[in-house]
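Quiz preparation item.
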């Protein structure tokens, strides 16, 4: 009995000690989680202030622009009052954004640039009012139609929308972190209660806790299995699509290579027939007959040169097709070398190489590059892309009008660049818009030399750079090739890799 009492006492003291340690751990965990929750809440509050002030500033500027347009159209004093109200509220709103932006370090807020852009936009709008007051409506409308005002508003909208987008993402993360912290605190408290029950000797609680852990593990396994099935499904779709492209490519290659081979085989048979006529003449006993002489002479002068010429032409065509396939294959395996590129300078140099042909055709080349940040890409690939597109514009120009070739480049978001190469040539039929990018495929009248590899080569190069190329065109209405590229190829190479 004494032994049992001592055992009970020791077990009780041990349980009390374990329970005290567990309670102390629960208190520390609760304090830590509560502190983390408070930190998350404060950060969310600061970020929300930046987001709210950015949205309010954008609304003020847009309200001022809307009031300006309304006044120019109707000359109602109410619109002028609305403009003045929005304009007067902008400095305070900008100051709020500056204060809230300086209170956090998650995203930089370019206050100086915003202030400069807003000042320029306000001056532009006020200049229209001055012209209106001087009864110069055409002058005011000309200012509104000027692209500079739209660019200022677009730049302001991009900056503020970018800040709002980043803030929304971070606020979503912050809310998720708050929710997770709250759940963690809840689980710590609930788990602590269960552990205390375990300490006082509740065997049922031990079993229940074990069952809960098994259920939780099972749910995690189910979630992992679901995610794995989705990834397997995605990879399967990618493989099916890649296999389909390979099959189509193999069909095109085999079809185009078979055509000259069939010609060679056909004219080889023709050579065999010709050789029979020649053999009949050469191996004739005695003097050949007049028919044998005529047939032999016709074979030597007509059939034999014609067959050799067609065989030589077919082998030359097959050699060109094989070289085209090897060229695209080599470019696909070439190691990309990302480097800073002055896109405007590259386009100018490429245009200079065809300028004499454009001038002879009475045409002109216009290049407008509006890249917010420098382009980092593979120089050799881009030179090949623009060289092919410019050469095609010259080759397939309309004979009845001067050639006009224009290039526009501008950013799309913060990570992409859009380049449009447009001409006024003879155009591409809508049903051939995708076909022209296939190997050995051409569109329209075949009055120019070529194997149909140029645009296929261009698409291969662009896709190697992490982008894509499409075309919009109508017969007789010219063509516009649209290229989308990542601004920084080094980031694409690191993220996607080989």
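Solution:
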């Amino acid at each position: 009995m004494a032994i049992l009492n001592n055992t009970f006492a020791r077990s009780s003291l041990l349980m009390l000690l374990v329970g005290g340690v567990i309670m102390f751990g629960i208190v520390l965990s609760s304090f830590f989680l509560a502190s983390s929750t408070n930190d998350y809440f404060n950060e969310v509050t600061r970020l929300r202030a930046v987001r709210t002030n950015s949205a309010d500033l954008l609304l003020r500027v847009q309200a001022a622009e809307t009031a300006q347009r309304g006044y120019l159209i109707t000359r109602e004093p109410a619109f002028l009052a609305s403009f003045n109200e929005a304009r007067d509220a902008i400095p305070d709103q900008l100051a709020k954004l500056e204060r809230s932006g300086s209170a956090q370090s998650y995203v930089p807020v370019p206050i100086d640039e915003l202030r400069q852009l807003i000042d320029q936009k306000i001056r532009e709008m006020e200049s229209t009012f001055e012209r209106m007051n001087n009864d110069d409506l055409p002058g005011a409308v000309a200012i509104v139609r000027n692209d500079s005002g739209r660019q200022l508003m677009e730049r302001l909208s991009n900056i503020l929308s970018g800040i709002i987008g980043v803030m929304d993402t971070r606020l979503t993360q912050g809310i998720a972190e708050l929710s997770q912290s709250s759940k963690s605190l809840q689980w710590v408290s609930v788990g602590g209660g269960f552990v205390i029950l375990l300490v006082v000797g509740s065997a049922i609680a031990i079993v229940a806790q074990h069952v809960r852990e098994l259920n939780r593990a099972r749910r995690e396994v189910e979630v992992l299995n679901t995610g794995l099935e989705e990834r397997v499904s995605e990879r399967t779709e990618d493989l099916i699509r890649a296999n389909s492209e390979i099959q189509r490519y193999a069909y095109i290659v085999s079809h185009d290579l078979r055509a000259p081979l069939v010609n060679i085989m056909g004219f080889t048979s023709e050579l065999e027939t010709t050789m029979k006529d020649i053999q009949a003449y050469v191996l004739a006993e005695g003097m050949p007959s007049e028919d044998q002489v005529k047939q032999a002479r016709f074979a030597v002068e007509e059939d034999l040169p014609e067959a050799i010429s067609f065989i030589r032409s077919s082998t030359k065509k097959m050699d060109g097709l094989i070289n085209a396939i090897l060229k695209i294959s080599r470019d696909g395996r070439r190691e990309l070398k990302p480097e800073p590129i002055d896109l405007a300078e590259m386009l100018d140099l490429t245009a200079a190489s065809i300028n004499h042909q454009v001038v002879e055709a009475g045409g002109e080349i216009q290049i407008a590059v509006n890249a917010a940040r420098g382009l980092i890409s593979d120089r050799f690939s881009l030179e090949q892309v623009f060289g092919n597109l410019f050469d095609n514009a010259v080759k397939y120009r309309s004979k009845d009008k001067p050639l006009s070739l224009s290039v526009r480049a501008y950013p799309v978001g913060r990570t992409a660049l859009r380049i449009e190469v447009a001409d006024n040539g003879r155009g591409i039929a809508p049903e051939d818009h995708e076909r022209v990018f296939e190997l050995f495929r051409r569109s329209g009248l075949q009055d120019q030399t070529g194997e149909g590899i140029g645009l296929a080569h261009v698409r291969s190069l662009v896709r190697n750079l992490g982008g894509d190329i499409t075309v919009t065109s109508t017969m007789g209405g010219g063509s516009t090739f649209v290229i989308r590229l990542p601004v920084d190829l080094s980031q694409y190479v690191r993220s996607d890799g080989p």
